[in-house]
Amino acid sequence: MNTGNTVQDSVTALKKKRAWHWLEYVFWLAAAASVFLLPSQHALLTQIAIWSLFALSLDLLLGYAGIVSLGHAAYFGFGAYVAALFAINFTGEPITGLIVAGIAAGLLGLATSLLVLRGTDLTRLMVTLGIALVMYEIANQMSWLTGGADGLTGMPVNPVLGIFPIYFRPANSYAYVLIVCFVLFFVAKRIVHSPFGYSLRAIKGNPLRASSIGIPNNLRLIAVYTIAASYAGIAGALLAQTTPVVSLTYIDFQRSADVLLMLIIGGTGYLYGGVVGSALFLVAQKFIGNITPQYWEFWIGFALVVIALFARDRGVFSIFERILGALRNDKAKP
Amino acid sequence: MLTILFDGIAYGMLLFVIACGLAVTLGLMNFVNLAHGAFAMLGGYCAYVLVNVYGVPFFASLPVAFMFAAMIGLLAERTLYVHFYNRSHLEQVLFTIGLVFMTSAVVDYFLGSQQRFINLPAYLQGRFDFFGVGIGKYRLLIILVCALILIVLQLILGYTRFGSRLRAAVDDQRIARGLGINVNWVFALTFAVGCGLAGLGGALGAEILSLEPHFPLKFMIYFLIVVSVGGTSSITGPFLASILLGIGDVAGKYYAPRYGGFVIYTIMIVVLVLRPQGLFARGTSK
Amino acid sequence: MNALETIGLEKRFGGIVPTNDVNLKVREGARHALIGPNGAGKTTLINLLTGVLKPSKGRVKLGGTDITNLKPHQRVARGISRTFQINQLFGELSPLEAIALVIGEREKLGTRFWRAFGSDEKIVGEAIALAKQFGLADVLGERTSSLPYGKQRQLEIALAIAGKPRLLLLDEPAAGVPEAERHEILETVAALPKDVTVLLIEHDMDIVFGFADRISVLVDGKLFVEGEPKEIENDPRVRAVYLGERTDD
Amino acid sequence: MIPASARFTWASAPMTEILRIENLRAGYGEAVVLPGLSLALERGQSLALLGRNGMGKTTLVNSIVGVTRRFGGKIVLDGKDITALRPDQRALAGIGWVPQERNIFKSLTVTENLSAVALPGNWNVERVFEMFPRLKERRYNLGNQLSGGEQQMLAVGRSLVLNPKLLLLDEPLEGLAPIIVDELLAALRRIIAEEKLSAILVEQNAQKILGVTDRAAILERGAVVHEAASADLRKQPQILESYLGVGKAKRA
Amino acid sequence: MLRRSFLAALAATALAAGSVPAAAQETVKIGLIIPLTGPFTTTGKQLEAAARLYMQQNGTTVAGKKIELIVRDDAGRAENTARIAGELIQNDKVSFLAGFGLTPLAMATAPIATNSKIPMVVMMAGTSIITERSPYIVRTSFTLGQSAVIIADWAAQNKIKKVVTLVTDYAPGHDAEKSFVDQFKSKGGETVESLRVPIQNPDFAPFLQRVLDAKPDALYVFTPSGVGAILMKQFVERGLDKSGIRLIGPGDITDDDVLPGFGDAAIGVVTAHNYSTDHPSAKNKEYVAAFKKANPGMRPNFASVGGYDGIHLIYEALKKTGGKTDGDALLTAMKGHKWESPRGPISIDPETRDIVQTIYIRRVEKKNGELYNVEFASFPDVKDPVKAQKK
Fold it and tell me: Which pTM does this prediction carry?
């Protein structure tokens, strides 16, 4: 047996995992190109990018650390309100707003993580749901601050870093969102391929073994929950900066559910699931919605059932894989 | 004061009848069935169509609503749910949310998105005074019907062979199978009854909760709270939780209306944080 | 010097006492086996040693330091590693990744979130060396869940060793391993580094007597007998426990 | 004890196999505990299954019941291939099971524990109560209110009301007080030796059950390494010692 | 994976590009953005049905141009409304934005209307401030204050001295509460208690019990359309009607669309609103008949007239500009426009671009076995009281 080679191969393979795949280059180049090539779809693309980032933050939790959440909109909405209020009261410079929103949402995540980490999946689902519902009620009741159900308007959006205007410039604001997303994707990729990221995967894969090789499970999970909350807050802030109103729908159950659905449709645990899922979801919503605006929910529901029936971690791709697998079934099963 | 108590009990009973099926699915089969409210809605709409469109007497519509929801439940269990028993909770959540979307859209398509109310016979409307305590007739009916259901459930569970086989299956599935109990069938039947009860609850509750296509999502949270606070190992747990929730909600809103919106959620979080394992003793993570 | 010492260790669950006043001493560098019939309380004892359970009474000392109040991962940092009777592996990771992960955590580098995993040549080098030692070189890069059972068992032990423990708890290392792959496991166990103190829980007497230099017999939660293998082998009380009293009817 | 030959003439029908296991490969998850076990049992006979902890005795019993993972092989009960049947179907086909941990249904009363699983036949709840009067006294108690011995009696009774063709008893004497052991042993003797119910008894403690069973098989690492008439084995303590005792293997 | 979304996006552009140029000169497009999924579906359906009805009745050619209606669902989410508005303007080249079922949805679109100088016809959302958010906004629905203030006036005139208010705890509810309480106080009435009900509230029993205990002359209620029915039923069930407490409020609570399902409980409820299906004018009879014919099972409600009149206003503005779609010209044409709606005479206030209309006091009665809001008093030419106060 040629052991030397296999060893070398597996080391190379390990390094390759964290390297950028050519498809990723293509993706980001295409995304950059769309700034110039698809002006008519900038609004939709901006939404897709923001949802992608939001889904990415959930992927960090679910796909890498195995924490289920049905209330992730709590951090998204909190970030959005913080960004809006900060812009109204201090400065309308967007990057500063993002940072403030990210920190605020992260702190909220840190504070609530202690509640979330206990118990089983089901308990987590319910607790995260409960946190989001409470946040929603708070935003609603503090209408003197948040505008409540009427929404919060009048948020100034100054040029980014004082030089790059995005207010009412769809192309610029799309470019801005895209750049922020790229930076955060880059950071997320570093994180998930770091020793810290691997330890999360270890906790997800087998918490018992993880703690018995000396990983402090809870500390790591608190850390990733904080990071994810912070990401969600930044996504919320981005939406606040690119939409003229922040309203209660930023924080509602529907949003928490939608982001989970998008992520699952796209697949968890490879960072791009959220992109794929949100793109499919929003494009479907837009185009099926144009054909049958009232009943597109039926088809989304149908898609979910089918995905749940046939797909696993990789979302829609599992279905393609299955079909492909069935087509070349002459090969023996492993 | 006593009126508040009475209202709370009626409200809680209603929650219980709808949610007890969910406790069964969650506790017995370790299945997160977010679509449970859809069966309640279907039962409600079934009664609505019967009474308002075909003029069937209200009381006759209740058993039909039960059967209708139960049959659909059984069908869904045998064809779809059965594929998800060994899947993760997350996949179950996805699948059942998908079902909710589909049922909501279908109901909207056939019956419209307006709120619907079942035409009640005149003798069920209004209220009477009982030693100074105002008693709503319909609420009294709810309490009576639900109490009857509770008693029948207890009798079936406690005194029939099916009941003991069911309890055996809940206690220890593996051993029950090994001793000749067809656990799959017991569960399917139980699932159907749970759906039927939800349907019956939906029909009974239409007057108070109101029927609309978004019913399953709107009340999902309440059902989940009942189950998560009450636990799933018996029907007494969810029953007590329902009554507690009903009275707590009603009383909380009466005495502190400003904070009514927070109370339930906060209680749920606190309970779950303090006793996550105790409440979901059977629902260990997969 | 004792690597491990328990003093009056006791655990109660309601009326059941699965661990009852256990005073166990494991010498530094020992090959110590713990045997006993079903239900003797071996699993509970291990959980008490690793910190998964808190004792109702008594202390646990590691190398003379009291570790009774430490959390599981803190005990690992102090040098306790264990293997599980039923494999507890990271199915999604490759053996190389899993071993490197353990080494990284051992070196307290697990919180690094910016540096790429596997970019530390020293860690990867050590992981490869260890993998070779445990016969995993040819499957280094494969998904753990796709490995044959015997290899998974090897990895189970390798992961425990990668933590450079002072005390290694081996829980039935050969359980469920097919006959053909069995000798590899036995060789691995026999070749464990001499400076590691080993506490072995095992039913297979071939393994116990081929490996241990000291044996403790646990019965009904109590330490029943302890001694050299020869003593245990010939102890009539032990024989009675295992074979039953002759009920000359 | 009646010699096998004597019984042969006593039972007018020709002896048939009640159980045949061919090359059974089974285990849990990925682990294969039984790498290829074969075993046969005649109708009306009882078999003691001996061996140390972790040698596959319980896995074998559980595999006959059908609650393990099967990788290969075949199980035939009374001429009928039950390999593909679910556990509950196997029970209906005639397997009676006393699981290792007894696993009394804790939220059922004693009577319910019996009636929930009972199938028509010779054995009914009343007969079980006759055999174990203690259970009758406690018939309204819940499963989790019983003592260990009572639980074991109930577990045995529960398997009997299934009216099985083959009874599987997994360590029925484990952890019981001596007086209870005697009572149970007497009952088992009645069922097995006098009523001629085919049975497999798992026991770590060989001496206790060799007096009850017709034959004995010793399991080591999932394979039958020694098979003999119980009476013969009882007379050969050195064999028992080498397979079941504490100490290095004394075989080559 | 990217390829998919990328292709989809490409396809989207192709679609959009393909559909625009052919008839661009001849067609004037109206973008109708409404909630058609989510909890506010009913409102969206009413708006769409009414808008289509108007176009069906009045033809699709105005001032030589072909009118095209593009309907989009925003699911009640502000970010969608804003995005769709942008897309409709940029890709579909619409000349009008219309719809807007909820306040935040209108607020989110206001700056877009300002920026692109496109008239934005608010057909539903009722918060006063909306029209101030852009000079291109006109409103054809109503403002909450109109009904709230008028019912306060009516109450004060009709021997109601003590009132408990009960509103849903969200911004429009707060507005409805404030408008009423201020007006009622200025007319000498007393509000003994103000209750707020959480949005997610399935049971009104505790609140109604408090009301019963407070023994007011009347209970003033505002809830989102759709919630009213439950409240009403529980009001009667609890016997509040029998204890002499009258139920009053803005017309949202006796929404014509849902009213038939209320049961007899609702009989006698007095509300103030801009429209009733039962409005006794020839114009309305014709409208109701046509609406029911086109939409079986639905009854036109106040949302529908907002849509109907909104399209009317667009048609008339185009007629005045001779088909020119210049935003400022259209706005000028709309300001001060007066016409006879199914709800009665209405006009657009030239200063505030908000609607001026008659507010009717109605009582729920049974006619031919069906429940209707029967008008019995009217307050003509009511402007938005909140804006009037600001002056």
Answer: 0.86
Residue at B247 is within a domain: no
In a domain, A106, yes or no: yes
Q: Which of A153, A250, A314, A319 would you mutate first to test chain E, the one with the most E CBs within 10 A?
A: A153
Identify which of D167, D201, D188 has the alpha carbon closest to the alpha carbon of residue D58.
Answer: D201
- Convert the pLDDT of each residue in A275-296 to its tens digit: 999 999 888 888 777 776 667 7
Q: Is the pLDDT of residue B234 over 80?
A: no
Which chain A residue lies closest to B26 (C-alpha atoms)?
A122
At residue D8, the pLDDT reads 40
Nearest to E213 by CA among B254, B128, B129: B254
Tokens at D243, concatenated: 């397979």
Number of domains in chain A: 1
Range of the domain at B76: 2-214
Query: CATH 3.40.50.300: which residues of chain D?
Result: 4-94+164-251
> How confident is the model at residue B38, as a pLDDT?
94
Are the C-beta atoms of residues A278 and A266 closer than 8 Å to each other?
yes
Touching status, chains D and C (3+ beta-carbon pairs under 8 Å): yes
pLDDT, tens digit, 9 for 90 and up, residues E311-342:
999 999 999 999 898 999 999 999 999 999 99
> Catalytic: C231?
no
Confidence of residue B62 (pLDDT cuts 50, 70, 90): very high
DSSP state of B235: S
Q: Name the catalytic one among C97, C126, C156, C172.
A: C172
Pick the CATH number of D4-94+164-251 from 3.40.50.620, 3.30.230.70, 3.40.50.300, 3.40.50.1100: 3.40.50.300
Q: Could you tell me which of A230, A178, A156 has the C-alpha nearest to residue A29?
A: A178
**Alpha carbon A46 to chain centroid, angstroms:** 14
Residues of the domain holding A75: 41-253
Three-class DSSP category at D217: strand
Burial of D28 (C-beta count, 10 Å sphere; 0-12/13-18/19+): middle
Kindly tell me whether chain C and chain B come into contact, counting contact as 3+ Cβ pairs under 8 Å: no
Find the DSSP H helices in B30-134.
Answer: 36-48, 58-79, 89-111
- Chain B positions in Cβ-Cβ contact with residue A129 (cut-off 8 Å): 221, 224
Domains of chain C, each with CATH number or no CATH: 1-79+165-249 (3.40.50.300), 88-164 (no CATH)
Tell me, what amino acid is at E129?
Answer: I
Residues from chain A that touch E91, judged by Cβ atoms under 8 A, are: 40
Please report, for the domain that includes residue E123, its CATH number.
Answer: 3.40.50.2300
Q: What is the ipTM of this complex?
A: 0.83
Residues 178-217 of B with CB under 8 A from A: 217
CA–CA min distance A76, chain E (Å): 14
Residue-level pLDDT at D221: 83
- In chain B, the residue whose alpha carbon lies closest to the alpha carbon of D108 is B164
What is the band of C206 on the pLDDT scale with cuts at 50, 70, 90?
A: confident
Sign of CA dihedral C216, C218, C221, C224: negative
Domain membership flag for residue B277: no
pLDDT greater than 90 at residue A7: no
Give the residue numbers spanning the domain of E268. Answer: 145-273+358-390
pLDDT at B283: 37
CA of D35: which chain C residue's CA is closest?
C178
Return the beta strands (E) in E184-309 as ranges. 190-197, 218-222, 246-250, 270-273
Together in a domain, E110 and E152: no
> pLDDT tens for residues D187-221?
998 888 888 899 999 987 777 788 889 999 999 88
Q: Average pLDDT for residues E189-203, to the nearest whole number?
A: 81
When divided into structural domains, chain E yields a total of: 2
Cβ–Cβ gap C239/D35 under 8 Å: no
Rg of chain B over Cα atoms, rounded to whole angstroms, equals 19
pLDDT single digits (tens) C98-157: 999 999 999 988 888 888 888 888 999 999 999 988 889 888 888 898 888 888 998 999
